[in-house]
Write a structure and sequence with these properties.
The complex is a heterodimer.
Chain A lengths: L9 H12 L2 H5 L1 H7 L6 H26 L3 H9 L1 H36 L7 H9 L14 H19 L1 H29 L4 H9 L9 H14 L6 H6 L9 H33 L10 H15 L4 H35 L3 H16 L7 H31 L3 H11 L6 H28 L7 H24 L5 H5 L10
Helix pairs in contact in A: 1-9, 1-13, 1-15, 3-13, 4-5, 4-11, 4-13, 4-18, 4-19, 5-6, 6-8, 6-15, 6-16, 6-17, 6-20, 8-9, 8-15, 8-16, 9-13, 9-15, 10-13, 11-19, 13-14, 14-15, 15-16, 17-19, 17-20
Chain B lengths: L6 H38 L1
The chains are: A mainly alpha, B mainly alpha.
Chain lengths: 506, 45
């Protein structure tokens, strides 16, 4: 009988799941997506997506992990043998790719936390970031040399990650999240309070919340809402299955999923208020419209925010340090969850110790991440991020839901299991969401995605460049999942013990 | 430049805050208070 690690407390599990879901995307993606897709009106498709896709899939993944009590590949193997095992490996390889570039962004945030104290970016934050920090190459595809100023903090990020993961589930991941998440919350509350007290903050909030109700008839707005919920909740790339596999047998599933989903959205809403309050301040200072300063992603965090910090009337350094420290903590808690997927998968499949699995997994990911610390790193990061998210996570989500709901017809089994241990009982809405609404919306999303990518190369990058890093990471994750599924399980007792056999159907 | 928030923006902010933060509060309240009360009631029955 295996001796599987477990969370110490229910709060420990919830904090770890929230820590995983709350990442960089909550802070720098959600505010802009909402603003671009109808402002306040976006909350309608967003909430609809949360309740008909985000939380239902979260419940399904928590149930799979809790019922089959293994890493994603082991859980899927126990569920349907080799025919479904590949789904677990697919998620793991997507996680692996994400971890390689995610760590680099955390390393930038680490540098900027220190830079904030004396506003080291000076009067030209854009030139400072792309020139002095990244030493960015002129053309996509040029690798150039290793940038020491990025590689060193990157190594530090990996060292922190290594120590936390080596500590195991309870004394490593749970302990880190018990410290980092409350600190992140306090820091972020400070950032938001300072933001909304700035001159012009209300102009930004008006731009963020003002509803453009006509947008509700635009199918792309609904697709954007589903897409965002999907990427934001850490679903469909093995994380939540892995985390739920460490739950004790008598653990609530459904309400834990509701808490995780709503906590993630709460942070996003808070981020939207904070980000648009400071954008309103910047627009007011420059006498322009908010639309002219609104931005997302790397540009928002490392160019626009330093510009805003420069213009603030007081507490500039501390505001900047708290903002970048928030990014750092949100990133680290997500990165450890991403790495845990392949650490658990390697350990289960090849029957190796956790120490060995952490060393191999983190070591390999750290080595590959050095590609993003080169002069051409930002171009590689941008393309890898787009393709692995759009053609990795979104496709896995669609395949996972179709296979489990329609081909293997497992929703009845999952419902029975979740209801047996949870306070809130699952009903018709859960099955309807997973059998009809989610596949339909994700299918539509794929249609638009393929159409857009056929019409135009992503960001206008040359086709040769996209075939160097973009498509290969997305296709490679799937190919590797088939290769790893073909390997034999090293320890058969681990495969067959300590989980509930299926009873029932859809 | 107008420095205030429009009525429709305030309304959407209240809707978002009420549903999302309210949902979080209710689910935590259910997990910490109501479920214990329910279990106690079932045991007594």
């Amino acid at each position: 009988m295996e001796n599987r690690s477990q969370w110490g407390t229910r709060a420990g599990f919830i904090l770890a799941a929230v820590g995983s879901a709350v990442g960089l995307g909550n802070i720098w993606r959600f505010p802009y997506v909402a603003y671009e897709n109808g402002g306040g009106a976006f909350f309608i498709p967003y909430l609809f997506a949360l309740l008909t896709a985000g939380i239902p899939i979260l419940i399904m993944e928590f149930t799979i992990g809790h019922k089959y009590r293994g890493s994603a590949p082991l859980s899927f193997f126990r569920l349907g043998g080799k025919k479904t095992e590949f789904l677990g490996w697919w998620g793991i390889f997507v996680s692996f790719v994400i971890s390689t570039y995610y760590a680099v962004i955390i390393a930038w945030a680490m540098k900027y936390t220190i830079y904030s104290f004396n506003l080291q970016w000076g009067k030209d934050p854009e030139g400072f970031f792309f020139g002095d920090v990244l030493k960015l190459a002129d053309n996509p595809g040029d690798v150039g040399g290793l940038v020491g100023g990025v590689a060193l903090p990157l190594l530090l990020v990996w060292a922190i990650c290594f120590v936390i993961l080596l500590g195991g589930v309870k004394k490593g991941i749970e302990l880190a999240n018990r410290i980092f998440i409350p600190v992140l919350f306090i820091l972020f509350i400070f950032v938001v309070i300072r933001a909304i007290t700035l001159d012009g903050a209300m102009v930004g909030l008006d731009a963020f919340f003002k509803p453009d109700l006509e947008q509700l008839t635009n199918p792309r707005v609904w697709v954007a809402a589903y897409g965002h919920i999907f990427f934001s909740l850490s679903i469909a790339f093995a994380i939540m299955i892995t985390y739920a596999s460490y739950l004790p047998k008598k653990s609530d599933i459904t309400n834990n999923a509701f808490i995780t989903g709503f906590a993630n959205s709460s942070v996003e809403l808070l981020a939207g208020i904070g980000v648009f309050a400071v954008l309103g301040f910047m627009a007011t200072q420059q006498g322009v419209d908010v639309s002219e300063v609104a931005a997302a992603g790397v540009g928002l965090a490392f160019v626009v925010f330093p510009e805003i910090i420069n213009q603030m009337p007081g507490m500039n350094g501390i505001f900047g340090a708290f903002f970048f420290l928030s990014l750092l903590l949100a990133g680290i808690t997500s990165l450890i969850s991403i790495c845990e997927t392949y650490i658990a998968g390697l350990s289960d499949k090849f029957n190796i110790s956790r120490r060995r699995s952490v060393t191999i997994g983190v070591g390999l990911s750290a080595a590959i991440s050095m590609l993003y610390a080169t002069n051409g790193g930002l171009y590689f990061l941008d393309a890898a991020d787009y393709f692995i998210n759009q053609f990795g996570i979104a496709v896995i989500g669609l395949v996972e839901v179709i296979l489990l709901a329609w081909v293997f017809r497992k929703l009845g089994v999952f419902e029975q299991h979740a209801n047996a241990v949870s306070d809130i009982r699952l009903g018709w809405w859960w099955k309807l969401s997973l059998t009809v609404i989610t596949p339909l919306l994700l299918g539509t999303m794929m249609f638009f995605l393929i159409k857009d990518n056929i019409a135009e190369n992503y960001e206008g990058y040359p086709t040769s460049f996209l075939w160097t890093i973009g498509w290969p990471v997305a296709i490679g994750a799937f190919v590797m999942s088939i290769v790893f599924t073909a390997f034999k399980w090293k320890d058969n007792t681990r495969v067959s013990s300590d989980y509930d056999e299926d009873k029932g159907g859809l | 430049m107008d420095n205030g928030m429009s009525g429709s923006a305030i309304l959407m902010m209240l809707v978002g805050v009420t549903i999302i933060w309210g949902g979080l509060f209710l689910s935590i309240f259910y997990a910490t208070v109501l479920s214990k009360f329910r279990k106690k009631y079932k045991t007594e029955q």
